[in-house]
Amino acid sequence: MALLSAFILAFFPPIVHAGETRGPVTNLPLPRFVSMKASEANVRRGPSLTHRIDWVFKRRDMPLQITGEYGNWRKVQDRDGAGGWVHYALLSGVRTVLVEQDMIPVHARPDPNSPVNAHFEEGVIARLGSCTVEWCRISAGGYKGWTLKTNLWGVGPDEIRK
Q1: What's the pTM?
Q2: Sorting pLDDT into bands at 50, 70 and 90, what band is 3?
Q3: Structural contact between residues 75 and 20, judged by C-beta atoms closer than 8 angstroms
Q4: 8 Å CB contact between 32 and 64
Q5: Which of 11, 76, 90, 133 is most buried, by CB atoms within 10 Å?
């Protein structure tokens, strides 16, 4: 398996854009957003079980930003910058966002003049769908629609999703 991986990397090197950092373990971009798969995750001072637990994240689906990798551990932070090392098995690639403004309008289309489907409260965790330069499609509590990207944490300002 290692020989196959070496062959693939030798003849098909990963595409890296100028100035982009890649994780040494996964070769995925750093930083990048993920979500909590578990309902609880110990956040450690370093990347091993021997390191002290500084606190516990207790919100399933909470968006987190990965800023580092070491073996099976990912260095993460929340929207307030609090974080540490979490085992990768507690994280998911399913994208979620945190609503940062109170009562944001969620529109039927990415247009401020389109009908409003719902209003989401500050602190709501929503599933992330497509994103344009300014808008993202989100869903939570059976409601879905489009809101301005600036209302959300968990999506990059330049990120476009199909």
Answers
A1: 0.85
A2: very low
A3: no
A4: no
A5: 76
Amino acid in the structure at residue 132? T
Residue 14's pLDDT band (boundaries 50, 70, 90)? very low
Are 149 and 138 spatial neighbours (Cβ–Cβ below 8 Å)?
no
Q: Which two tokens stand for residue 83?
A: 């974080």
User: At residue 35, what is the residue type?
Assistant: S
Closest-CA residue to 154 (of 84, 89, 58, 76): 76
Written as six digits, the tokens of 48 are 């091993």
- The 10s digit of each residue's pLDDT in 119-142 is 999 999 999 999 999 999 999 999
- Edge-to-edge order in the sheet of strand 41-44: 53-57, 41-44, 83-87, 73-77, 63-70, 32-36, 91-92
Dist. CA 44–CA 51, nearest whole Å: 6
Phi/psi of residue 90, each to 5°?
-90, 0
List the structure tokens of 126. Answer: 């929503």
How far is residue 119's CA from residue 131's CA, in Å, rounded to a whole number?
18
Which residue is associated with the tokens 């602190």?
123
Beta-bridge partner residues of 32: 66
